[in-house]
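Protein: Aspartate/homoserine dehydrogenase NAD-binding domain-containing protein
Species: Oppiella nova
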Amino acid sequence: MSSESQSFKVIGIVGFGRLGQYLVNEIQTNGTKLGLKLGFVWNRTKTEALYDSVGGDKGLILDELTHVDRYKVDLIVEIGSPSCLADKELENKLIIASNKSESSLFIPTGALWVLV
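Structure follows.
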């Protein structure tokens, strides 16, 4: 199947610690083989490593979490601080954006590690 006709799942990454960096790198490096494409990445602090991870494409950097509805993604993976979604106003905005786009929003609690 050519990459032009292949359907990609577009992934948004919230959090750019070690795990976030790993996921962004894997999507950027092996995404085509995996059927994945990076939709955006957000981090509380905008570092040089963050910009480097998207190859300088500033359009892939989500500046404000409240602007998440500006990106068309299939899945958002939140791997930031556990307090990231403790803001009820932000949580409500995400739920509203999810409902508008007819998407699902899963907010897990605790850590989930999967070894591949």
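Remarks: The chain is about 30% helix and 15% strand.
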